[in-house]
Each structure stands twice: as structure tokens, then as C-alpha cells.
Amino acid sequence: VEQAAKKNPYNGCTIYEYDFPSAVLGVAHAHITTRYPEKGRALNTGCEEVYYVLECSGTIQIDNEISSIKQGDVCIIPVGKPYSVEGNLTLLITTSPPWASGQHQNV
Question: pTM (2 decimals)?
């Protein structure tokens, strides 16, 4: 069983990152009660992300498309596409390859 490292990038967002022993897959879960990122949009330059909504609902904007999301929905965020998430959500996040902070940009 892997232990999660708790990260609080700002008030309203808590991310639990798992040190998953894989060269091709990263795993985390997040609680968002406001907006992620706090301002602008996030952009990942190194990995594709898949968000699975475990609880609650909100909206996600990927590139210029805004979609409502709710429990049971899956969202794929391609490499290099700006995105943001708003609402009260609990997400399971997988990445391929594993996420690294140097890949992340706020735009």
C-alpha cells in the first residue's frame, strides 16, 4: 500500500500524491472546493491526465470547451492543453507518464 503525500497549493485545493512505483503511470486524488488553479489555467507539458469524479460536481474547461462534470464522469486532459476546474469535487487523477512539478505551468 502506497502512502500519499499531502499538498495544499492554496486554500480550497488539497492534493494527495502517491509515490506510485511505475515509470508509465502516476496516481493522485484531489479535493477541490473552489477553483483549480486559483487564477488562470493550468497546462501540463509532460503528461496526459485523466480525472475521474468520485464525488460532487462542477465544471471543467479544457482548451476552449467548458463541460459540466459530476460523480462518475471521466475527463481526459491532453498534454499541452490549458485547463481549469471549478466546483466542489473529489477526483481520482491518473497521469501518463507520472506527473512531475517541472511539467506544470500556470497560464
Answer: 0.91
